[in-house]
Amino acid sequence: MAAASSQDDALQLPCSPPRLRLRDRMGSLEDAIDSDMLRFDGFTVSPLGPSGEGTVAWLAVSSFSPVKRDLNSDFGTPTCPDAPAADSKPLPTPGIIKQLRAGPTRLKPPSESSHYFAGTGQAAAVPKRGRAAPPAVDKRGAAARSKGSASGTAIPSAPAATHASAISSVPGVSKADAPSAIPRGPAMPHSVPSLAAAGADRSGAASAHHQQQQQQQQQQQPCKLPARRANPAAQPVRSRRRSVTPEASPGASWEKMLASTDDIVAFKGTGKGGWAGFGAAKHLTQEGYAVTLVDGSPNPGGLSAGWRTPQGRAVEAGIKGFWYQYHNIFALVRELGIEWPFTDWETSGFWSPQGLDIEAPVFSAKPRLPTMLGQFVHTFSLFRTLSLADRATMVPLLQCIFDYESSPEAYERYDRMTARELFVRYGVSQRLYEGFLKPLLLVGMFAPPEELSAASMLDTFYFYTLAHQADFDICWCKGSVSERIFDPLIARITEQGGKIRGQRFVTNVLVGDTGTVAGVEVRQPKKGGGLGKAEVLEADAVVFAVGINGMQKLVSGCPALASRPEFARVMDLRSIDAIAVRLWYDQRLKTRFPANVLNGFEASAGGTFFNLTELQEEYQNEEGTVIAADFYHANQLLPLSDDEIIAKVHNNLVTCEPAFAGAKVVDGKVLKFAGAVTHFSPGSHANRPLQTCSFPNAFLAGDWVKGVPHGAKGLSQERAYVTGLRAANLVIDRLGRGRHAHIRDTEADEPHLALGKNLYKAVRGGIDRLGIPQPFL
After folding, report:
1. Residue 750 has pLDDT above 90, yes or no
2. Residue 376: helix, strand or coil by DSSP?
3. Burial level of 67, CB count in 10 A (0-12/13-18/19+)?
4. What is the pTM of this model?
5. In Å, how far are 416, 421, 458 from 7, measured between CA atoms?
6. Residue 444 belongs to what domain range?
7. Which end of the chain has fewer CB within 10 Å, C or N?
8. Are residues 162 and 269 in the same domain?
9. Is residue 1 domain-resident?
10. Closest CA to 88 of 74, 71, 70, 99
């Protein structure tokens, strides 16, 4: 146990859901169509429509009485993609088969680019790759779809950049139209109810055919990385996948579930670039839900949304790194099949007004040692201003890594304490605090230690720096995240039938008679100011993928949310201001490091600057130099004019890189974001919501929610994306259709850390049972 100090100077899953392979059951589906007859489970069904037209009828198979509406159901023999066909067992013989007419669609014969699919009561011809998906039919159009008994809607955020998605059984088409062609996408979606984003954590994502196509594309166009170092992020992540067989939600009959409209609305906010909302929408559309994603920004993408000036120069809301343990984001990029958008792992510099203090190496390029020992050995000579004695004062603090998560009560104790108080109690030196820990937290958690929860600080340190030697390695996007990643992701979502509706704000949540969310009201800004007429988006499930600021605005204007304790507590949470700056210089100049952290340049704000001429491909042929700079905890800087902020950035840059003193700024742009980033303040854990809430069909996503069983912690794009996938899984659990998204966890704890945690947990449990108080907490 470390001595106390009160002085500041001492400081996987069973078989997939039924996917029917008609040819496994009947031989050639083409032959069955030609013979004008389909046979399965002892029943004979003649396709509707003139003989020889190859028309596909929608069939409802149910053990309940016939329902006079378009229904879907499973039929045939379900097979498990991971098991031999012989292991498959037929579904129970249905009691009633009712033919329901759908619009005629010619069924193409099987081929390499078009195959037949029947799942959850759906037979469909899949368009060839490259063929445009059928146009979406608005649910308020001429062919209005019938309303189900249990409708729910996902909700966008209040006047703050928010994101919402709505989902229905067939992407973009009402059931009254009953199309048999499904828009192309990475997987053949089941006919699944629409959902909002929220979710569990495992699932198979794409069909076997799509996975084969993806592998062929990756073989033809491999991701190329710089030759000087292999980038682990670009390497395949192998993991076992398990599928989940969905079950009907409690209290909902199978018949009612089939009859529901199953739309999903997801709305996203500015937090972490919209990763949560996009993650939920992507998986739900992939599973066949009709999703509407509502975003307050004209350019969907939240804090990673990109804009271009009238001169065509790119401006992005902040530069964010992609860390070594971002396995799910790296997997998404591989799945999209796009050119690898990331740089190699890069070194970074930590600067003070006196010069370079610390250099952060690429740990994965060094010999791997047990974590903590590896970080110490490989940075031994890179701390230029901190003595070994100062660095050694951090060692007693490491015992907190074993203690703070030993029980829920322990976590709450640490959460009520500030990070600075914890540093003082465990004897961290003043020089280590001011020269390393404080600037690292200002740019890693966007607030100084005296305003941060000690538990959240330990979460962040463990995820980014301590769990494994290479965890601190970081790469950057070779262009704007919006253009390199979000644009292809949006294209995938829309190809799968999803709708993206930008420049709209969620202003109200509508609650149905059954106590579920029935929909949301959205409004568009008017040119003269204010918001326009409300538009109602009905939904069967809703995902709140908004940040704290957006959620607070929504709760303030929505009595249905304000009356719920979990949403009322959100009003006690805080968010942080940020500023993003981009400068164009008239000279081509180099910087020692492409990414840099500033310490002590502003009284209470953290700062960074990046040489985009070196990081981003579009600037590599520029005659001048392009610099991006960000300020966090920027409340004292927000009142300044753009010119004053640009002058600060230039002066900071000259201090670190004197060659810029003779360069002239020829263009610049300042973006200010009030309350845009999550603030993990002391005691905030108790007020942060879970992903589920008192509305059974509404779910939350974002890096600020708690109770996420995943290793990504703190302010993290990976955590935001993971919560979006989990929200999608929660929607699937609620509506009972589709496969869970497969979520990759962080690398397991190294043996010595796992042993230490287990031992400390056992000892702590014994001490607590004896009533012995913790000396320092």
Report:
1. yes
2. helix
3. middle
4. 0.68
5. 20, 10, 21
6. 364-472+750-770
7. N
8. yes
9. no
10. 74
What does pLDDT average to over the chain? 72
Q: Is 327 helix (H, G, I), strand (E, B) or coil?
A: helix
3-state secondary structure of 415: helix
Token digits of residue 495: 């190809």
Residue 249 lies in a domain: yes
Residues 562 and 600 in one domain: no
Please state, in angstroms and rounded to a whole number, the distance separating the CA atoms of residues 354 and 369: 33
Q: Verify that 279 and 151 share a domain, yes or no.
A: yes
> Model confidence over 558-572: pLDDT tens digits?
999 999 999 999 999
Q: What is the pLDDT of residue 268?
A: 54
* DSSP notation for 235-294: S------------PPTT--HHHHHHS--EEEEEE-SGGGGHHHHHHHHHHHHTT-EEEEE
Q: Which of 420, 410, 183, 361 is nearest to 289 (CA)?
A: 183
- Asked if pLDDT for residue 776 goes beyond 60, the answer is no
CA dihedral sign of residues 639, 642, 643, 647 = positive
User: Do 378 and 321 lie in a common domain?
Assistant: no
The two structure tokens encoding residue 58: 């929608």
For 265, phi then psi, to 5°, come to -115, 130
Last residue of a domain, one of 679, 698, 721: 679
Q: How many domains does the chain have?
A: 3
CA–CA gap between residue 771 and residue 82 (Å, rounded): 51
Question: Is the pLDDT score of 13 beyond 70?
Answer: no
**In terms of domains, do 160 and 262 share one?**
yes
Dihedral angle computed from the Cα positions of residues 550, 551, 556 and 561, in that order, rounded to the nearest 10 degrees: 150
CA distances from 777 to 275, 416, 423, 453, 684 (A): 36, 10, 12, 14, 17
Shared domain for 503 and 437, answered yes or no, is no
Residue 741 burial (CB count, 10 A): 28
User: 637, 658, 679: which is the final residue of a domain?
Assistant: 679
Identify whether 295 is part of a domain.
Answer: yes
pLDDT per position as a tens digit, 395-452: 999 889 999 998 899 999 999 999 999 999 999 999 999 999 999 999 999 999 999 9
Residue 623 domain-assigned? yes
Q: Quick one: tokens of 731?
A: 């929607």
Give yes or no: residues 621 and 664 share one domain: yes
Non-local (6+) Cβ contacts of 363 within 8 A are 374, 375, 378, 469, 470, 471, 472, 473
Q: Are 166 and 280 in contact (CB under 8 A)?
A: no
